[in-house]
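Input structure tokens:
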């Protein structure tokens, strides 16, 4: 039965950046994220006998082939599992700016996997949903679960799957500094491909990931925000360094991103537990204690408008909505 399904975005603390297998979306490295409550997607899938192709209506607007391709990749797998041939109308609402480096692809494709599962009546497990969401967008595999989540790279379609690590029910949260919410020039998909293929720094990035991941997992189990933040910040900086070595080179940073990163460093010098991470876009995410969030937000208002700063707490896994 068609039902609305909600999935929240997640922000990686250990980044996924590069694919081992493009067709199956199997990554080069394990990644680890925090699912957040502030941004999410609601999606409903309806299979219809009279459609000649799948269609995606996002925020009331029919989407182009590029967006549809990811959606149909997931729907094809659902059709195969359910032995169905009907195409589907996908209605989706993003409570997150689309393609601005705020992980709309994660919440969007995870919500789609959940909604398609409901529409086809497949009753898939969370693990199967994670696998399915991954085929739409890698980071979406992690948005099936709440709290801290690790996507194990695996070696094939079956083993490349996300798993919950910790419920994040402790004093940690994230502030989003929205320096720009417009669509980015280089999508994550194109950016990571270009980096893997051309950046001489890519191997250097990969070489340090096992250590970052092991230290991050230890820091999470100790609930040590300073360790979590330190590792996340250095991991993000390394990922962004790889893009400067790509050919042609590119960066997701803008002048305002630098202002935000500097503001975080200043607050840290003043004694606060604050760290930043960034994804494929100019917006900056600030890792801090939930108990300090109001103070940190106020301090950041010296650099940015209050409306540009959004507070987020750890969020839940996917949910089937009742109406
Ligand atoms: P972001 O930083 O927002 O994740 P990406 O470039 O990685 O940016 O992904 C954005 C793309 O994800 C969109 O162009 C679209 O293809 C897809 N996407 C985003 N939201 C949805 C949604 N609700 N349903 C289906 N696909 C979506
Ligand atoms: C920088 O999951 O959007 O946010 O698998 O090609 O759809 P595709 O890429 P996507 O990439 C996310 C990249 C990142 C890091 C991360 O979320 O781990």
């Amino acid at each position: 039965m068609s039902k609305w399904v909600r999935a929240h975005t997640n922000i990686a603390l250990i980044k996924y950046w590069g694919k081992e297998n493009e067709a199956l979306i199997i990554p080069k490295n394990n990644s680890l994220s925090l699912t957040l409550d502030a941004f999410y997607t609601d999606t409903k899938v309806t299979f219809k006998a009279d459609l000649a192709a799948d269609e995606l209506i996002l925020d009331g607007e029919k989407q182009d082939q590029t967006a549809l391709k990811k959606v149909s990749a997931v729907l094809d797998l659902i059709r195969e599992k359910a032995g169905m041939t009907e195409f589907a109308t996908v209605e989706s609402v993003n409570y997150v700016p689309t393609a601005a480096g705020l992980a709309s692809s994660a919440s969007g494709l995870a919500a789609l996997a959940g909604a398609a599962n409901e529409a086809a009546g497949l009753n898939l497990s969370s693990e199967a949903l994670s696998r399915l969401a991954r085929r739409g967008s890698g980071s979406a595999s992690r948005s099936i679960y709440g709290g801290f989540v690790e996507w194990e790279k695996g070696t094939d379609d079956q083993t490349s799957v996300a798993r919950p690590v910790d419920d994040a029910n402790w004093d940690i949260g994230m502030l989003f500094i929205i320096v720009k919410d417009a669509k980015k020039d280089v999508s994550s998909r194109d950016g990571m491909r270009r980096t893997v293929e051309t950046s001489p720094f890519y191997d250097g990035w990969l070489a340090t990931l096992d250590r970052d991941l092991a230290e991050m997992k230890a820091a999470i189990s100790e609930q040590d925000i300073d360790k979590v933040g330190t590792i996340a910040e250095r991991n993000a900086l390394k990922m962004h360094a790889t893009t400067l070595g790509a050919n042609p080179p590119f960066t997701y940073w803008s002048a305002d991103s630098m202002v935000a990163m500097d503001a975080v460093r200043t607050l840290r010098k003043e004694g606060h537990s604050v760290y930043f991470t960034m994804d494929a876009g100019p917006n900056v995410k600030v890792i801090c204690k939930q108990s300090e969030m109001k103070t940190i937000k106020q301090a950041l208002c010296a650099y940015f408008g209050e409306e540009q700063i959004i507070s987020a707490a750890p969020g839940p896994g996917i949910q089937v909505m009742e109406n």
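The chain has a mean pLDDT of 96. The CA atoms of residues 233 and 277 lie 5 Å apart.
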